[in-house]
Amino acid sequence: MQFLIPVVILCVSLVDSQKVLYNNEIGFNNGFYYAFWKDSGSATFTLESGGRYAGNWTTSTNNWVGGKGWNPGNSWRTVNYSGYYGINEYANSYLSLYGWTTNPLIEYYVVESYGSYSPLNCPGGTDEGSFTSGGATYQVRKCRRTNAPSIIGTQSFDQYFSVRTPKKGFGQVSGSVNFADHVQYWASRGLPLGTHAHQIFATEGYQSSGFADITVS
Asked: What residue stretch is flagged as signal peptide (predicted)?
């Protein structure tokens, strides 16, 4: 999948009430940063009260991602989430804490649930072991993107994936991500982060269909 939230930005807005987004947008809403990106099709992203958002997509959209969180992010935040993740096992989708850092340029994911494709299968990557956080086991993989879109244009950069095992599944979901645990484990494997850019709890879909209604805190 291609993960392009920051690359194509059509507008930035400050919104305080419910709003449905049909085009790529970033901004702040009820105290949270939000980002919505798609490369095609009819995916929509709804800004709800507080840290709540909803995403709705069909196969007319090749790739989309959206969520709420913080800008800048940090390395010690515990992120709580709850709501509905409406996909099936055949849908290519992630539900994850997602963000970027610069110096070094890193794209990272803490994947709480996913559909048909696990990022542990990313081609050309390296397995980096596993650790326990919050009573769950996370398997870690480092992948490499070459001449790919990033928050600072086309670059080559590493991706870090922590993938919850077993995943949360579908339907009603809730949980917490203690991001400090992931940062510390990545560092122990020689996978440093840099200066934080945005950090959101995101839903992503790739050549699939589904619905998500998620509250972040």
From this structure: 1-17
Please tell me the pTM assigned to this model.
0.91
Burial class (CB in 10 A: 0-12, 13-18, 19+), 79: buried
Return the active site residues.
107, 204
Q: What's the pLDDT tens digit per position in 92-123?
A: 999 999 999 999 999 999 999 999 999 999 99
- Domains along the sequence of the chain with CATH: 31-216 (2.60.120.180)
Angle CA 156–158–163, to nearest 5: 145
Identify the residue whose tokens are 């947008």: 25
